[in-house]
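Contributing new records

If you add data, match the layout below exactly. Sequence lines come first and carry their own label; structure lines follow with theirs. Keep one chain per record. Anything else will be rejected by the validation script.
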Amino acid sequence: MRLTKTGPLTILTIQLFLAGWSTMASAHEHHSTYSAGEPGDPKKPSRTIEIAMSEMEFDPYRIEVKRGEQIRFVLRNVGTEDHEFLLATTGENLKHAELMKKFPHMEHDDPNGVRVGPKKSAEILWKFTKAGTFEYSCLIPDHREYGMTGRVVVK
């Protein structure tokens, strides 16, 4: 058996790889709480709101809901590129957008976000438990910057 020496450059490369992997993995850890409420209960009634996603906008841009209301978002990508719908505060979405610039093909595995391919649809069931103004945004690099955001006002 032949043993080889591990040089400082190899160790540094491994450390950088693991640090990047750790950052990417922790970026989508499941939250125990969400700023805009909580995942909905499919056994309870909900109001359906359809949102069309195109280059580079959501339609409708603004939605009003009542605190405690459960919404079934039907997300239809009518565009020619992938788009995302991520429901959070503006600050949280801005922070997450920076991470998406580093990892643009990151897949979301949270109940408040989904990536939808061209001509595809997806659904999110959400209960708004907190009053305030929240944002839905496409965090694929440059999409948000080109105006792909919307607002949910919870009264």
